[in-house]
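Example record for the data management plan.
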Amino acid sequence: MDIESIEVPSKASPVLSYWVVAFLDLLGYESALARMDVFPFPEDPVAYGKVVAAFARDVKLRRRLFGLVNEFLSEKAPPVDLSHLSIDVQKAAEKWRKVEVLNVPGADHWVVGCSLAPSDTHSPMRAVLELVSAASAAMIIQLAQGADDPDDTLPLRGGIDIALGELVQPENFLYSPALTRAYKLERDRALYARSIIGERFVGFIKSAANDEEPGVEANYNRELAKAVMRFLFRDKDGLVALDFMGPGLHNGLDEEFATEIATCVVIRKRCTLKVAREWPFRHRSEIRLAARLHATSAIRLGSKGLT
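Corresponding structural encoding:
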């Protein structure tokens, strides 16, 4: 292969904007793969069947998570009657309903990101709200999958932060330190099944929520920022974390789904000891912390979020 002959798309200069990125890691994925790491291939039909079943089960769980999250992100907002508003406000409202969110699933992790650069097809603050909503939904989905069998529970641990970046085209590849910042929060600060919010992102969203700029659009963005803040809380160790069962997501759910989440929490309490005792993960103290966090999450449903 002649490397020099390969054509690489290029631009005179990168188009930079700030990006918010969430990095979510599937805890216990290494242990799940270890159960399927068989060599040589088993000749016994029973052993063969167990390996195949293990692969099929884990692939099904991953597809369920990424499929539901993708459905969450791709769901279109229902039509709203805006005929009583002025033409200018109608046009602005339609623009605010449009978002572009990057959704990149991986084998053992999941990345979602959004640019803070506005366009005719992208409302940045609305996209940030979609991002934290999707991350919260993903964490709940993973808990729900383990309600019946702790072996199905691979909780998510993550980080969310902000930095400059560029979405490289046509590869649709995000090149940004926001990804490494979010990854380091997940790896070094989260410690157990929670998602830590970078202080840079906290400062950004607080500033947006307290912005005093007048006008319809400014007011709309301010309210969206306040909605994002309701997804955040300061944990006992002083770090800001994603309150994935808190008022941010809970207030946006219909009654049926909210009841389903409450049921999931109750079931989770019942299997807490079973999870801590049997879940095949090397850091069992981490699982006990995760179970305790999840069991007390319902208490924060009535909280007001980060202030």
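Summary line stored alongside the record: Residues 31 and 255 are 37 Å apart (CA to CA).
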